Amino acid sequence: MIDRRVWQAYSDSASTRAGGPFGRRIAGGEEPPVPMEFWLAAMRFGHAMIQPLYVINDAQPQPAGLRAMMGFRSAAALNRGDVAGRPVTNDWLVDLRRFFPASDEQDFNPSRLIRPAMALALYKSRALEPADDLGAEPVFERFGGLPFRDLARGYLRGMPNGQHMAELYETAPLTREELIGDNRHGLGGMYGSATPNPLNEAPIDAVTALAEDTPLLYYLLREAEVRQGGKRLGPLGSKILADIVFSIFERKSASNDQLGFWQSLVFGASGPPATMRDLVDFTAAPEGVIRSARPASQASV
């Protein structure tokens, strides 16, 4: 999901790995916190890729919705004693081969393109959040569900905007025109052409204001849509992820002497899997083996 050129640059150059603003911070501290720009923005691009329906295994040929799939988590969050802690039955076990197919000819669950939009269920599904203290509808649903939560967390923590981060990482910023877009995409078309843009109802020119001071998460999603066609993160999102990931690798270098031993012990002479599909095949149960459901003592949340 990262721009290959950015990943390769960080992989090849020790100076690039050492020069990133977050990399320097992580390398310098004894136990530095993971920057919020990483876990509250760059890493949340996955929310935009979630589909509303999935075929999770061969036992359930009909697509299952997010509300049904999140039922276990919701039950635990709401302290429903009749459901919480219930084991996941065989027909709900996720077959990762449906998400990482061996070839393009196989049926699989494609992800949504990375763009500043999410599946409708994430805006409204009550299965995703517990009720508030008054027993009313989930607070995040009243204001826009998961997208609101993601943006509100960044705002409340004072996260820098996308323009500042682009300057910090010396990345060509998105232009005002790229951020605003048209009546179908960007800030100018928040809900597409069929639905009125709520930003136009603000007492100020909210579209222009947000194009000049863009929340980092929205900026990264729009950058992926404009610069990469939604297939992967754009330059800034890729740099933030690569900077953090490679910096953590550098900090763990002291324990790398044992890495080769564990790799050979677990994976044998063939070495570790090269792709996610290889990893899925390595961990898959043999054909015809029926895996039992987890015991009730292991809460499936």
- Unreliable spans are 130-137, 292-301
What structural class do helix, strand and pairing data support? mainly alpha
Please tell me how large the radius of gyration is: 22 Å
Basic shape: globular
Q: Provide the residue-averaged pLDDT.
A: 76
Describe the sheet with the most strands. 2 strands, antiparallel
Number of strands: 2
- Reading side by side through the largest sheet, how are the strands ordered? 1-2
- Share of residues in helices: 40-55%
Element string (H = helix, E = strand): HHHHEEHHHHHHHHHHHH
Strand content: under 5%
First-last Cα distance? 27 Å
Count of helical regions: 16
Tell me about this structure:
There is one protein chain. By secondary structure, the chain is mainly α. Helices cover 42% and strands 1% of the residues. It has 16 helices and two strands. It has helices at 4-12, 14-19, 21-28, 36-39, 66-69, 71-77, 120-124, 139-143, 145-156, 162-168, 176-180, 206-212, 216-228, 235-251, 259-267, 276-283; strands at 53-54, 64-65. The chain has a two-stranded antiparallel ribbon with strand order 1-2. Helix 1 runs parallel beside helix 14 and helix 3 (21-28) packs parallel to helix 14. Residues 130-137 and 292-301 have low confidence and may be disordered.
